User: Fold these one by one.
Assistant:
Number 1:
Amino acid sequence: MKHLLPKPRIAVIIAAAGKGERLGGDVPKAWRDLCGTTLLERSIASFQPPSLQTHQQICHVTWMGLAVDSEYVQRARELTLSAQDPIEVVEGGATRVESVRNVLARVPDAIDVIAVHDAARPFWPVEKWDELVQEAWKWDGAILAIPVGDTLKRAEIAGMVTVDRHEVWAAQTPQAFRAEMLKRAHEQVSERDAIATDDAELVRRVRGAIKFVYSSPRNFKITTREDWKFAEQVATMDNAIRVGTGYDAHRLGSDGPLMIGGVRLADTGGLIGHSDGDVLLHAICDALLGATTLGDIGTHFPPSDERLKGIDSRHLLRETRVLLSNAGYQPSQIDATILAEAPRMAPHVDAMRMIIAEDLALSINDVSIKATTTEGMGFVGRGEGIAAQAVATITRSVT
Ligand code: CTP
Ligand code: MG
């Protein structure tokens, strides 16, 4: 067995030059938009930071090349312009083997391991990357694969025959190989091999030893329209629910009305603030923005903005909803607590829930408001101010 390579120099080849005939549609499969991002963009991003780093992977990609349909070369170049490291864009061939070979010809010499990935697999388990690379280096190659769970049948003239599924695995991508091994395999491709649907088969034919790395059924290849529908469900589920928290406190003692949750609780003695000082609505805005990683209320509605002086905070809440919507999200649930010594909030809580539900296009049952005193303790207890905290749950808007 060869030694582990502490820092292998890795090239990634993305095969994206297919027509996607079985899927159909106006654009080749790799250029189809899956919940806001094309399959090709998803593949590229999966091999770049922060994707690999998020999973604490230590094997970093040093070079990347794409095979794309001849009509999409320019578009791919434009797409990759903003990448941190340059990405080579190459015209694909008539078969997958040809497409991979075209990119292989551009891989720099100083590369230890080459991984090949199908753009048609947007959900590969990134956390398996280090293992895949290290196993490829240890042996000659390693591929992501899963043992076949179904009973396998072959249709024969005499009827259906069960195929022994013992030791049968479904091969996926990425597949990684020692660089010289993959190059040799592709140099020796015969006419018959040219239709091989994966690189492991070519490497095997030049006597390469290949290891399975246990993968996940999530890493299915999008081939048909049914696969696409399933992929949409997976992609939607992936970022279905996000959560944010918010907190705000204001000092009591303004001449204006006391506004909490959009309800006028008193005509004077309100909260001091640049806007109407509605701590509850501000905490909810912050929770919503936090869930979307869009910063906070000060980022979007700065105290320096004269137009916001004394503004009704419901306006800020509705604007926050627009910001969420532009980012592709919608509020789904709010839970908040008001911390105040006085006045009693309970009689007003339902009115607040109604207002917030209306501004966020939610049902009143998705908005929970609670109130508590702090039993005389702290600034709230001394009646110096009122505070509020909120948790917001948001979901991706279905487009
Ligand atoms: N591929 C490629 N060059 C080809 C054919 C396929 O780069 N000449 C790539 C595809 O873009 C895909 C992967 O190989 O990412 C797996 O191929 P497949 O799922 O068969 O995709 P398509 O060939 O695009 O689909 P179809 O066979 O239905 O036309
Ligand atoms: Mg194909």
Note: The chain has two domains: 10-238, 242-396.
Number 2:
Amino acid sequence: MSQQYLQCGRYRLPVTPGRRPLVMGILNVTPDSFSDGGNYHALEFAISHAEQMIADGVDIIDIGGESTRPGIPPVPLEEELKRVMPLIYALRDCGKPLSIDTYKPEVMREALIADADMINDINGFRAPGAIDAVKDSTAGLCIMHMQGEPQTMQQKPIYDDVVEEVAAFLQERVDAFKIAGVDRDRLCIDPGFGFGKSVEHNYALLRNTQKLIQTLDLPLLAGMSRKSMIGAITGKPLDRRLAGSIGAALAAAAQGAMIIRVHDVAETVDALNVWHAGMVDAIGI
Ligand code: 7PJ
């Protein structure tokens, strides 16, 4: 991987091989869980969560206004904007790059007007107008692979060779950005753990992290925190998957993943710091 920096809006993030991976903290704004059904408490809660992540050493804050868990219905555009935009404005000057987890071109445009630094698209910028929405900015762009649609993707994921097919998909999207004239130093790739993949598919991809990085020659983001692939090995429910998630993060880091997307920032930062201190000479980095 030749790239030294990920151009990310107001920031240039170091993604040099051998460095400790960056930690992306997940910040969800979903008012459904608040008794007043309104956005005020959700906003307050999200801001204090962000402050805690910053204290815990987060490198990128990933703001999401729509749950893309399997089977959950999509959020209308206006509702997503109402959830996400106030948070972008509230956190704009927090000192950390803000990533927006969305596949809607309209949300991308609004977020970029508000100075968002990165667009993280689980749909790989395949929606009509998605590439146009981001191409003239300087934002970082995370291109993720997904098979099918969030509502139905886990029903029957099928691949002949999951690693080949994910790599080919990502290469096609990288080429689409090249054709659009987008600088390569803005791009990172993501195999999309859990997005239209069985447990076996997910582990085949995790075991081939290094191969994906070499094939695409771009920084790789890995998001496995608390996902069902962790539950499948540990047998633990969602709220007890921290240790398993850290195991997955280290497996990806050891193969050169440069951004790890997690719920538990403090614990992941500690784990990666200790892992890195112990490995830096051992694996010749
Ligand atoms: C991912 C994501 C991921 C990227 C979600 C969850 C589901 N974005 N957004 N990669 N997952 N880039 O966090 O469980 O794996 S939402």
Note: The domain at 5-279 is CATH 3.20.20.20 (TIM Barrel).
